[in-house]
Amino acid sequence: MNQTKSQKISGGQAAVLSLKKEKTKHVFGLIGSATMEMFDALYKEKTINFIGVRDERTGTHMADGYARASNKPGVILAGQNGPGATNLVTGIAQAAAAFSPVVSIAGSFSTKDKVQDAFQGVDQQSLFKPITKKTWTINKTKKIPEVFSKAFNLAMSPRRGPVQLNLPRNILSDTAVFNINQNKKSYETESAIKGKKNDIKKAVKIISKASKIVIIAGGGIKYSGKYKDVTKLAELINVPIVTAAGHGDSIPFNHKLNAGQMGPRGNPVASKLTKEADVIIAIGTRLGFNSTFYTYENLNKKAKIIQIELEKKMLGRYFPVSVGICADASTVTKQIYNEIKSQKLISETNNWTKNYIKERNNYLNNRDNENNLTKFPIQPKGLFKQLRNVLPNNSAITLDAGTLCLQATDALEYYNPPSLFTPLDFGLVGFSFACGLGVKVACPNKTVVSLMGDGGFGMTISELSTAVDYGINTITIVMNNKSWGAEKAYQKDFYGERFIGADISSPPFDKVAALYGAKGYKVDRVSEINEAVKAAISCNKPAVIDVAVDPKALYSFRRDSFKHRKK
Q: Which DSSP letter does residue 423 get?
């Protein structure tokens, strides 16, 4: 479909032309009768690749992963109103927690019907309102292009996030005259909002008087891919960088000033830096829950905080700041760099950084020489060491929630931002595999590896059909401990080992993968991991590696939540 002049077409055709106007290359979705006019138009529109999924929830995770990896909107189309729309909710809530620009589209009952009388009727406008930046229910066919344009623009505007479009059946089937300009999309992929000169000077004055400075790099740096602005600043003032939780890929692993992830799920070296620093430069981070637990256990209470954030309400929201700059993270970083350079400031941080480098090297050496790395049954740390050895530097890693994946966040190495995709503050199990499929569609030349527990993979295994049907060749590593590990750990540590609902059984995932037409591998010993991963990378099919992880290797992540409990 190539709209170059005014013509009378259906609302469904207008919706697809609106997607084309936004330079949409891929649409994830599940067909349904409510939006058949859109699917028929997609069939004719050869510039848009439709990827049919098995569940709207997992399709939304694919759109989410695609959006985060591509720096473009991810589009999910639920063809059915009612249950098709309600299945989107978990995925949209997850995208909202990650500030991911997902454009979600669902059919809706006819505007001539009342919700309580309609087949598959539910108040979708109210349903999505709390979990999106904005939700529209389009009530006039003629308005489709205008609302689509607003939706794409809002999804990509700071701070990014999901939007929802509900399209009633009769609005899609009705016709109108449209003239949709295909020349320019409605959104920008970059922000360059500058900080105020006064704020830059205040920040530099604080930096000039400090001796223990640490930079925290967050999602605002990671998703823009402009980590070099941060490393240049760190090199100029000779200070270490830590990364916010879930954003360990903000800075390439091999940069000598990169200490890795901080906070409760981070490593001890990075966490010590934020606990001892006298100045914290927080770049593109909210200093949110998984980085700080909103307590001073993870930050020095006496530290002066310079926070750079695109969303004004996040400045000083969780911790008082000395300077709060509402602007683009990399742009402000460059401004601070230029101001320091123009003033020819001399760094007084040499001892602080020298000690950090020594501690970081010791930590990395000790990590690779722990006693239990070749133990049977397989320990999580043993698995992670092998993955560090065998995965190529261009790998993208997706993780689930759960304590096995939490342990992996700082145990793996990330070189090409963005290359780590997690559920972040939503803590969702069942996210990783589907997200990885979206990441692979966005970055076909990257090796995409999805880590999951056996419970989470069991939730989403049907998307193996999608992976096989569309040739989306990711590698899923199932850390199989035959349990809901996080909850079992809490029952073990705080509830006297009164286990209920914690132990689960699963079929052999390697054999199930083969039945779907994918490749499956079984790993029972550490010595088998490298060979299995190498084979999976080269098999040219979606691959599943079922790794038998020690069921006793349980870890209570949120011990603070249960400290009032006794065994």
A: -
Whether a cis peptide bond, with omega within 30° of 0, leads into 130 is no
pLDDT in tens, 530-560: 999 999 999 999 999 999 999 998 877 776 6
Q: Would you say 409 and 248 are in contact if contact means Cβ atoms under 8 Å apart?
A: yes
CA atoms of 18 and 171, how far apart (whole Å): 15
pLDDT at 3: 47
What angle, rounded to 10 degrees, do the helices at 56-70 and 89-97 form?
A: 20
Which of 3.50.50.60, 3.30.420.240, 3.40.50.970, 1.10.10.10 would CATH assign to domain 371-562? 3.40.50.970
Pick from 401, 426, 399, 421: nearest CA to 93: 426
Helix axes 11-21, 36-44, angle to 10 degrees: 50
218-272 pLDDT, tens digit each: 999 999 889 999 999 999 999 999 999 999 999 999 999 999 999 888 899 999 9
Yes or no: say if 528 and 383 are a contact pair by the CB < 8 Å rule. Answer: no
φ, ψ for residue 341 (rounded to 5)? -65, -40
Decide if 317 contacts 289 (C-beta within 8 A). no
Q: How far apart are CA 263 and CA 271, in angstroms?
A: 5
Concatenated DSSP letters for 27-51?
Answer: EEEE--GGGHHHHHHHHH-TTSEEE
The burial of 265, by beta-carbon neighbours within 10 Å (0-12 exposed, 13-18 middle, 19 or more buried), is given as buried
As a whole number, the mean pLDDT across the chain is 93
Please give the CATH topology (third level) of the domain spanning 197-362: Rossmann fold (3.40.50)
| Six-digit token string for 470 | 């569309």
CB count within 10 Å of CB 179 equals 11
Q: How far apart are CA 504 and CA 507, in angstroms?
A: 10
- Round to whole Å and give the CA distance between 417 and 226: 9
CA distance 563 to 40: 57
CA distance 183 to 456: 43
Helix (H, G, I), strand (E, B) or coil at 449: strand
**Domain spans of the chain, in order of start:** 7-178, 197-362, 371-562
pTM of the model: 0.95
Contact 474, 448 (CB under 8 A): yes
Q: Are 277 and 300 in contact (CB under 8 A)?
A: yes
CATH for 7-178, options being 2.170.270.10, 1.25.40.10, 3.40.470.10, 3.40.50.970: 3.40.50.970
- Alpha-carbon gap, residue 516 to 533, rounded angstroms: 19
Residue 524, pLDDT > 60, answer yes
- Could you give the CA distance from residue 251 to residue 361 in angstroms, rounded to a whole number? 17
Closest of 530, 542, 549 to residue 391, by C-alpha: 530
Give the side-chain half-sphere CA count within 13 A for 546. 19
Distance CA 68, CA 155 (A): 12
For the segment 506-513, the average pLDDT, to the nearest whole number, is: 98
Q: Which residue has the tokens 């979708």?
A: 124
Same fold, 197-362 and 371-562: yes
Q: Which ranges in 344-390 belong to alpha helices (H)?
A: 350-367, 380-390
